[in-house]
Structures are given as structure tokens and as C-alpha cells.
Amino acid sequence: MVNLGLWQLRRLDDRQDRNRTVRERSELTTEPVTDWLTPTSGDDAVAAAEWRPLAAEGTYDDASTILIRNRTLDGAVGYHVVTPLVLDGGTAVLVNRGFIARGAAADAPDPPPAPPGPVAIVGRARPTQERGLFGPPDPQDGTLTEAQRIDVARVAAQLPYPLLPAYLELLTTSPASPGSQPALLPLPALDDGPHLSYALQWFFFSALALTGWVLAVRRSAASARERSVGSRQPLTPVP
Known about the structure:
Layout: H1 2-26, E1 31-32, H2 43-49, E2 53-60, E3 66-73, E4 76-87, E5 92-101, E6 118-127, E7 146-147, H3 152-156, E8 166-174, H4 195-232
Parallel strand pairs: 1-2, 3-7, 5-8
Antiparallel strand pairs: 2-4, 2-6, 3-4, 4-5, 6-8
Helix pairs in contact: 1-4
């Protein structure tokens, strides 16, 4: 239980470090996405670019839009709408255009079309999403129109052009999109989460266990003394 409490404190430190990085990088001056990333950039470059506001100009490949399942926003369940933005020179970057609600029908709704023609956008850089230990898988073959996560390498396999190894969460677009568009995604919650309270609970449970052990040992010792004294008492003869 002590180790679990210390683990929660380490998670608190990690969360505070992440929050600090998000705040600092999201407030930086916008730079071109190609100044930070190329199709061959490695994990270090992606990590250095994460959360930075990056600008890109190009044309959306609306026919290649993918819906990312099981997403929520303000209590509603729905999808993230991800569309490749083809840049000058033929490279593209995936753009998470935002959230749409699921609706009453069982089938996924039709996503709002991406703005036609050339656009200039700004988005915060995010790394490819990886499957967790128990996360549902996506098919390895075929063309995905819906997916469980934004797996850049998997999406790149079904596109005719190279992708940058990170995607952008849309912040602004110019010209403005006509008609209804997906709701833009906010930054993640930048609080400390429940880790401190969980750590204190584990330490409290540890103290209870230690106190209970001490009391049990004392009670056992007292019982042993009572039995020992009783065994030494002389027997009273029966008249």
C-alpha cells in the first residue's frame, strides 16, 4: 500500500510536468508545420513539436475523411472528424477537425464536408495514437472509414501520398468554413487530477494496517500472559 501511494505521487509529478508543457507550448508563437516535421521525422521530433501551434496551407482530401469512434465532448458521445490536408509538394498532414455527436441512429452520421479549395489552418501538434493493452484493434487491411484511434501509420497505408508523423488538432481555419462544422476540441484538463487524494488514501490504509497489526500483537501478548498466569495458579482442593 505504501508503494501504491508512492506510485500515485509519481503519477502526480508526471501530470504536473505534462500540464506545464501543455501550457507553455500552447502559448508559443505559431510556426509552419514543415519547420518541425517531415514525413521521415522520428519520435524525438514529434515529441518536441507536441502541443505547439503549427500552421499549414493546402487543400483537404475530403474523400479520405475518417471518423474516430467513441469520443466525448461536454457529455455527448460521438466521433472525431479527421481529414488529410494535402500541402504544397504533395505531403499531407492529418487534421482532427473536431467533434460531431453520434445522434439517434445506429450508423455513424455523415461528417460535415471539409472546406473546399485552398485553406490556411493552425492546429496543435499531437502524436499518433497507440492502442492500449486492452484497446479494441482496427483492421490491418482495407480502407478505413471509421477507426478506434488516429493511427497515422495505419491511415498512411491507405493514402497515395506521404503523411507527416503527427496530426493537428484544428484551432483556426481561413477562409472560414461555410455551414455547420465539427466542434473544435479544447485543451485537456490542466488540473492535478485525483492522484494526491489517492496517495493519501493509500497512506491512510497503510497506517490503519500498521495500527491494527500493533493492536493485534498487543492483544495476543496479553492473552498469552493471562493464560500463563492462569496455568501457575494452585489448584484449590475439593472438600
